[in-house]
Amino acid sequence: xxxxxxxxxxxxxxxxxxxxxxxxxxxxxxxxxxxxxxxxxxxxxxxxxxxxxxxxxxxxxxxxxxxxxxxxxxxxxxxxxxxxxxxxxxxxxxxxxxxxxxxxxxxxxxxxxxxxxxxxxxxxxxxxxxxxxxxxxxxxxxxxxxxxxxxxxxxxxxxxxxxxxxxxxxxxxxxxxxxxxxxxxxxxxxxxxxxxxxxxxxxxxxxxxxxxxxxxxxxxxxxxxxxxxxxxxxxxxxxxxxxxxxxxxxxxxxxxxxxxxxxxxxxxxxxxxxxxxxxxxxxxxxxxxxxxxxxxxxxxxxxxxxx
Length: 307
What we know:
mainly alpha; CATH 1.20.1330; 2 domains; flat
């Protein structure tokens, strides 16, 4: 079979795989329905048996003239349950048959796809000196390198976002304790809780600084000048803590809360900018992946033309 014929055949593979997945889901739902209907049918059958076996109930129904009606009604319900089960069973069997047919077709096409890819690789070797092929290979290498850089930037950006979010959450908690300190008066416990969250935030910010520095350097290497400086972040000092915890007054409380809120606003700004960068990188990654796919299509077309 020539390469072009093979290619046209295997183009149907994704459609068949999608259809097979849909059939499997329908089969799962049908199987659940079949189980429920079987239980219902068994219940209706048991009701008939109970009615016939209960001699006293049967005696009373016969005396009242309602026995035949009762039996007829139960038999009708049993029949309806049996018919519903049979229909569901037939549908389930049909879905199973369809799934098996698709599995066989997909297996055959996957073998042909493997054969096609092997032949493409063989013909690719024969085109190594072709100028058009060389140009496409150079373009492919450039695009693959670009994708590697973008994905690395994305990983660093996402890690920075995670750390910044953690620092912001700690600052929010510290701010809540600072507010409580202002409105309800001095408490050593409240101060300890507040500074525990401040310590957590500062630890995150120190880690974040190294990630942001790495990110800035990588962006510069890619020709993007973007600053994520944390110079505006104000760390707490031992002196501030001592005064706040042992010589507490409203002015100290306001100063500490103001510092926490300033740090919180700074972190929110960094997070916003990091999310903006993430969106830009994802868009760029999508564009490069699209260009790479077009490059592969051109290369495959060239191979087919020279096969």
